Amino acid sequence: LKVRVVRSSPPSSQFKATFQESYQVYKRYQMVIHKDPPDKPTINQVRLVPVSFEDPQFKSSFNQSATLFAKYQMSVHKDTPPDCGENEFTRFLCDSPLEAEHAPNGPECGYGSFHQQYWLDGKIIAVGVIDILPYCVSSVYLYYDPDFAFLSLGVYSALR
Protein backbone atom coordinates (compact mmCIF):
# COMPACT_ATOMS: atom_id res chain seq x y z
CA LEU A 1 0.00 0.00 0.00
CA LYS A 2 1.34 3.38 -0.99
CA VAL A 3 -0.24 6.54 0.41
CA ARG A 4 0.35 10.00 -1.10
CA VAL A 5 -0.73 13.38 0.16
CA VAL A 6 -1.47 15.67 -2.78
CA ARG A 7 -2.44 19.31 -2.54
CA SER A 8 -6.03 19.83 -3.70
CA SER A 9 -6.28 23.59 -3.23
CA PRO A 10 -4.69 25.09 -5.15
CA PRO A 11 -4.57 21.91 -7.24
CA SER A 12 -1.09 20.44 -7.57
CA SER A 13 0.09 18.70 -10.74
CA GLN A 14 -0.28 15.32 -8.94
CA PHE A 15 -3.87 16.19 -7.99
CA LYS A 16 -4.70 17.16 -11.57
CA ALA A 17 -3.03 14.02 -12.96
CA THR A 18 -5.01 11.68 -10.68
CA PHE A 19 -8.31 13.57 -10.53
CA GLN A 20 -10.33 11.32 -12.85
CA GLU A 21 -9.07 8.15 -11.18
CA SER A 22 -9.84 9.58 -7.72
CA TYR A 23 -13.27 10.68 -8.87
CA GLN A 24 -14.07 7.17 -10.15
CA VAL A 25 -13.10 5.68 -6.75
CA TYR A 26 -15.27 8.28 -5.01
CA LYS A 27 -18.23 7.59 -7.32
CA ARG A 28 -17.94 3.81 -6.82
CA TYR A 29 -17.74 4.33 -3.04
CA GLN A 30 -20.87 6.51 -3.08
CA MET A 31 -22.76 3.91 -5.13
CA VAL A 32 -21.72 0.90 -3.03
CA ILE A 33 -21.71 2.38 0.48
CA HIS A 34 -24.36 5.11 0.19
CA LYS A 35 -26.44 3.49 -2.56
CA ASP A 36 -26.22 6.57 -4.79
CA PRO A 37 -27.59 5.91 -8.27
CA PRO A 38 -24.98 6.09 -11.06
CA ASP A 39 -26.84 9.00 -12.69
CA LYS A 40 -26.81 11.28 -9.62
CA PRO A 41 -26.20 14.86 -10.80
CA THR A 42 -22.62 16.06 -10.94
CA ILE A 43 -21.21 19.55 -10.57
CA ASN A 44 -21.18 20.18 -14.35
CA GLN A 45 -24.92 19.45 -14.49
CA VAL A 46 -25.74 22.33 -12.14
CA ARG A 47 -26.22 25.85 -13.49
CA LEU A 48 -26.48 29.02 -11.43
CA VAL A 49 -28.81 31.35 -13.30
CA PRO A 50 -29.58 34.91 -12.13
CA VAL A 51 -33.29 35.52 -11.60
CA SER A 52 -33.71 38.15 -14.28
CA PHE A 53 -35.89 38.28 -17.36
CA GLU A 54 -32.96 40.12 -18.95
CA ASP A 55 -30.72 37.02 -18.59
CA PRO A 56 -30.77 34.76 -21.70
CA GLN A 57 -30.33 31.52 -19.69
CA PHE A 58 -33.14 32.48 -17.32
CA LYS A 59 -35.46 33.40 -20.20
CA SER A 60 -34.68 30.26 -22.19
CA SER A 61 -35.33 27.96 -19.22
CA PHE A 62 -38.32 29.85 -17.75
CA ASN A 63 -41.08 27.69 -19.28
CA GLN A 64 -39.32 24.46 -18.34
CA SER A 65 -38.83 25.73 -14.76
CA ALA A 66 -42.43 26.90 -14.44
CA THR A 67 -43.74 23.57 -15.75
CA LEU A 68 -41.54 21.64 -13.33
CA PHE A 69 -42.72 23.86 -10.46
CA ALA A 70 -46.36 23.09 -11.27
CA LYS A 71 -45.66 19.34 -11.51
CA TYR A 72 -43.88 19.43 -8.13
CA GLN A 73 -46.57 21.52 -6.40
CA MET A 74 -49.41 19.31 -7.65
CA SER A 75 -47.64 16.04 -6.84
CA VAL A 76 -45.93 16.85 -3.54
CA HIS A 77 -48.18 19.58 -2.08
CA LYS A 78 -51.44 18.58 -3.82
CA ASP A 79 -51.98 22.09 -5.23
CA THR A 80 -54.53 22.59 -7.95
CA PRO A 81 -53.42 23.80 -11.42
CA PRO A 82 -54.65 27.38 -10.79
CA ASP A 83 -52.58 27.49 -7.57
CA CYS A 84 -49.33 26.88 -9.41
CA GLY A 85 -49.65 28.62 -12.75
CA GLU A 86 -47.04 30.80 -14.42
CA ASN A 87 -48.17 33.97 -12.58
CA GLU A 88 -47.97 32.23 -9.19
CA PHE A 89 -44.55 30.82 -10.06
CA THR A 90 -43.29 34.26 -11.06
CA ARG A 91 -44.71 35.95 -7.96
CA PHE A 92 -43.44 33.25 -5.58
CA LEU A 93 -40.01 32.39 -7.00
CA CYS A 94 -38.97 34.99 -9.56
CA ASP A 95 -39.99 38.37 -8.13
CA SER A 96 -37.32 39.23 -5.58
CA PRO A 97 -36.74 42.40 -3.58
CA LEU A 98 -32.98 41.84 -3.93
CA GLU A 99 -31.14 43.80 -6.57
CA ALA A 100 -28.28 42.20 -8.44
CA GLU A 101 -24.92 43.59 -7.43
CA HIS A 102 -21.38 42.85 -8.57
CA ALA A 103 -18.99 43.95 -5.84
CA PRO A 104 -15.26 43.91 -6.72
CA ASN A 105 -14.47 41.65 -3.74
CA GLY A 106 -17.64 39.54 -4.08
CA PRO A 107 -18.29 36.23 -5.80
CA GLU A 108 -17.88 35.98 -9.57
CA CYS A 109 -21.65 35.49 -10.04
CA GLY A 110 -22.40 38.57 -7.93
CA TYR A 111 -25.01 38.98 -5.20
CA GLY A 112 -28.74 38.59 -5.67
CA SER A 113 -31.38 35.94 -6.33
CA PHE A 114 -30.55 32.86 -8.38
CA HIS A 115 -32.10 29.67 -9.65
CA GLN A 116 -29.65 26.81 -9.19
CA GLN A 117 -30.79 24.45 -11.94
CA TYR A 118 -30.03 20.73 -11.89
CA TRP A 119 -29.95 19.31 -15.43
CA LEU A 120 -30.04 15.68 -16.51
CA ASP A 121 -30.17 14.52 -20.13
CA GLY A 122 -30.98 18.01 -21.38
CA LYS A 123 -33.85 18.77 -18.99
CA ILE A 124 -34.19 20.46 -15.64
CA ILE A 125 -34.94 17.96 -12.87
CA ALA A 126 -34.66 20.32 -9.88
CA VAL A 127 -34.32 24.01 -9.06
CA GLY A 128 -32.96 25.48 -5.86
CA VAL A 129 -34.03 29.09 -5.44
CA ILE A 130 -31.25 30.82 -3.50
CA ASP A 131 -30.17 34.29 -2.48
CA ILE A 132 -26.43 34.94 -2.46
CA LEU A 133 -25.62 37.67 0.05
CA PRO A 134 -22.30 39.11 1.31
CA TYR A 135 -22.14 36.85 4.38
CA CYS A 136 -24.41 33.91 3.59
CA VAL A 137 -26.34 31.89 1.05
CA SER A 138 -30.04 31.65 1.82
CA SER A 139 -32.06 28.73 0.50
CA VAL A 140 -35.48 30.12 -0.42
CA TYR A 141 -37.16 27.06 -1.95
CA LEU A 142 -36.38 23.84 -3.76
CA TYR A 143 -38.60 22.00 -6.20
CA TYR A 144 -37.84 18.87 -8.19
CA ASP A 145 -39.34 16.43 -10.63
CA PRO A 146 -41.16 13.86 -8.44
CA ASP A 147 -40.02 11.15 -10.91
CA PHE A 148 -36.50 11.75 -9.55
CA ALA A 149 -37.36 11.71 -5.84
CA PHE A 150 -35.10 8.66 -5.45
CA LEU A 151 -32.08 10.94 -6.04
CA SER A 152 -32.76 12.85 -2.78
CA LEU A 153 -32.17 16.13 -4.59
CA GLY A 154 -33.22 18.20 -1.57
CA VAL A 155 -30.47 16.63 0.52
CA TYR A 156 -27.97 16.93 -2.34
CA SER A 157 -28.87 20.59 -2.83
CA ALA A 158 -28.57 21.41 0.89
CA LEU A 159 -25.14 19.77 1.10
CA ARG A 160 -23.99 21.44 -2.10
UniProtKB/TrEMBL annotation:
Domain of life assignment: Eukaryota
MF terms in GO: arginyl-tRNA--protein transferase activity
GO CC terms: cytoplasm
Domain N-end rule aminoacyl transferase C-terminal: 66-160
Keywords: Transferase
Protein name as annotated: ATE1 transferase
Native organism: Tachuris rubrigastra
